[in-house]
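Hi P.,

Sorry for the delay on this. The queue was packed all week, but I finally got your sequence through. Input first:
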Amino acid sequence: MKTTMRARWGMSLLCAAAILIAPAVGRAQTDPDRAFLLVANPELTDPNFAGTVVLAVRADPGGPLGVILNRPTTTALSSVYPDRADAAGRNDLVFFGGPVQPDALLFAFRSATKPPQGMLVVEDIYISGYSRVLDELLKHPEHAAEQRFFAGYSGWAEGQLEAEISQGGWYVLPLDTEAIFRMNPRTMYDDLLRRALVPRIEARLGERHPSRAN
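Then the structure:
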C-alpha cells in the first residue's frame, strides 16, 4: 500500500465508517436472524465476492451490510497508523471487507460493555468505525485475538440480497462467531462451503432413497 493511501486512510476512513454505522446505533437486536453468514456459491463469478464468506447483519434502515471474513490483505494495522505508539506493536492484518467505501476502516470486536458508538452483531460482538472506539481498542493489545479490522464493507439495497440468495448466488448459514475471530481465513471458505452443502446433499439422497431417510 502506498504512503499516500496510508495517509488518506488515517485521516478520512473513520469518518466514512461513522456514516455507515451511525443509522444502526441504538437499534441493534439480539434476534438470531439478524446476523448470519453468507457463503458464496462456487459458481459466483463476481470478483468482489467469488470464494468469500461474509458476515452479514440486517440493520435498519435499508438492506443488510457486512464484511468479508476471508480476504486478508498484506497491510498491517501498524502501517496504516505509523505515527501511533498504540498501534506500533500490532501485527494484525487489515482484511478487505468489501467494495463499498474501500477507504473506510471498520473493526469487529468483543466487548463486555456496550461501546459508545457501534452496531451490535450478536451477544458481545460489535462493529464500529469510530475513532474513539478505535482508541479504546488499541489500549488493549491483549485482546487483539478478538479484534479484526476491515477496509471497506459489503452492502445491499433492500431486497437485493434476498434476490441473490433466491437465484442461488449465496448459501446462508447461522452465525458461527468462531468465523469472525478464530477460523483460519485461508481454509474458512472450503470448511463453511462443506457445512452448507452437506445438508443439501443428504436431503437429495433422502428424496431419491426415502427408505434411507427412515
